[in-house]
Amino acid sequence: MFDFMKKKSFKIFSPFAGLCIPIEEVKDDVFSQKILGDGIGFKPTQGEVLSPVDGKIIQVVETSHALGIETNNGIEILLHLGINTVSLKGEGFKVFVKEGDKVLRGQKIMEMDIDFVESKGFNTDSVLIITNGDNIKEFEKYPGEVIKGETIVASVKL
Q: What is the pTM assigned to this prediction?
């Protein structure tokens, strides 16, 4: 209704410390082939996960390895920690928010025990996916070393 009040572009900041990689390099076909949408991958070096944007939590997966955030301008972002980690049934993960919570960029929202996840034989590569990308005109990504909460990993134009 008030679309004229929404920003027409925004930046996505790194939710992780470590390395930002092209989504095509993530070792999971669902993500690398963009089946759920376009995005970016991460090789996290620390378990703390920060909100990459201001928005609202729209989904928290029961097993605590993934959640959804809707930005203030309606873009839906999925954060998924690790590859095939749903089978850990929540072990090694903590979520610090619930559905309906408003979050600010840089706020701690999740945690992954990287050592535990790796000790169980799982890859800790993680992804940030835009699941309603039809609303996006441009999605520019910036791979490389990242500092959680500080490094811009993508720019989105609506």
A: 0.93
